[in-house]
Amino acid sequence: MPAAPLRRTVVRVDRLTKRFGAVTAIDGVSFSLAAGATVALLGGNGAGKTTTISILLGLLLPSEGTVEVLGEDMLHHRHRVLHRINFSSPYVEMPKRLTPFENLTVYGHLYGISNVRRRVEAIAEELMLTPFLKRPTGTLSAGQRSRVALAKALLNEPELLLLDELTASLDPDTADWVRGFLERYRVRTGATVLLASHNMLEVERLCSDVLMMKAGRIVDRGSPADLIARYGRRNLEEVFLDIARRSAEAAAQ
Amino acid sequence: MTGERAHAKAPPAFFSARRVWAMALRYFYLLRGSWPRIAELIYWPTVQVILWGLITRFFVTHSSWLAQAGGVLIAGVLLWDVLFRSQLGVAVSFLEEVWARNVGQLFVTPLQPYELMLSLAAMSLLRTLIGVVPAALIAIPLYSYSIFTMGLPLIAFFINLMIFGWAMGLAVSGCIMRYGLGAESLAWLAIFALAPLSGVYYPISTLPDWVQPLAWALPMSYVFEGMRAVMFEHIFRTDLILSALALNAVYLVAGGSAFLGFFRIARRHGLLLQMGE
Hints:
Number of helices of chain B: 12
Order of helices and strands of chain B: HHHHHHHHHHHH
Strand content of chain A: 15-25%
Radius of gyration of chain B: 23 Å
Helix content of chain A: 25-40%
Strand content of chain B: under 5%
Number of helices of chain A: 9
Oligomer: heterodimer
Structural class of chain B: mainly alpha
Order of helices and strands of chain A: EEEHEEHEHHHEHEHEEHH
Strand order of the largest sheet of chain A: 6-7-8-3-9-10
Number of strands of chain A: 10
Distance between the termini of chain A: 50 Å
Largest interface: A-B, 28 and 23 residues
Structural class of chain A: alpha/beta
Radius of gyration of chain A: 19 Å
Distance between the termini of chain B: 39 Å
Largest sheet of chain A: 6 strands, mixed
Shape of chain A: globular
């Protein structure tokens, strides 16, 4: 039987630790992401998901450990790869007084995209932003703003996309549409996606692998189907609750 | 369990002193938890008293001074505003990103911190020109004084004041990056702390002897002395301008380094994503 082709490693995280004073936000986290994978970072509030993503982006310096993204050391040479990655998070916004067109144009220039105007118009068309492209961003609905944020995240056609609670503020219909769009994008471009989410159905639908985080550590990992089978549960939500409560009970004893 | 609820049974009164107290308490908590806000309360009256005290002291003994060079106070105000707008232009442009909660998003693009610094300086120049040029033009019909009659020395004064404003603006922006919106008021008040030392409306020799070395450590003191030399003696003191330029080089490096240093601290503490909250 011929060996399956080895997929390139896009992200390699080794023994990553971040301490804020006496608080350890993440504690010896190690994982790697293969090219083209969509991996979920799951965990309750304060599990360390956003901290991990912030370090991957270079926004936060770790206390210990190494991070390699697209072959570059993110702690020392992040500017060599920032044009090849992108992210979206509810913790950041775009200037509300600017229109989506103006916002996306600014980001197009920051990412060094050639023919920014054409690219902005194309992504606006894909994400159905065209009717409100020239309206102030602050006047748009939450769903429209989320699509603008997604347009920003995809503007440079990133090879690595980091998404923090992508559909948190969206109604089910819009959230479903966004997930579908993201799936098509990944299939078309072969991009690698790391998704932090509290929505287990979203993770089951989009992700090939799951990293379960609790109290700053990765406590389990595997595909959604593997985890469901291993824990003898019906779905990922039950697995999530099982891990969260079992750990809490163990701590209580 | 008595079945009692925490809320009152009667409908809320039309007016409640308790609700007024609750809101006052809310603002007190805000004030108590923010040293920059408390400092600001003390700051303005103190600076005003020092500045106008020095102005009064000078004019008591030099009452004929203004008659020798009409417009010297207007020129001082306009040039001081160049400095203020330059500093504010950097700090407010940066604050725009903080208010928009956009800082984290900017720094995951290939944007380098020094590129942001350069763009802030460029915006500061534009904002200063937009703010000061109309005021200078209005002074011509209203007070029969044109600052443009200074000629080429005006450009040298303008450049020096802009550079010091950039240095201050970058240091202030760095503080905002480190301490958050609690330090926002620094954008408006930082430069005024230096006004009494700058000799905007009176010569540096008016200051107490022990303060004068501090004044001569500031580039704008040389600019305002140079302005008076042009207006009273009709000479352009290149020695003053060269001293101002040399000091500005030091301050610009210090301001830029402060910005970069605070950026590194913000990365270490995870402040870039939270900024604006």
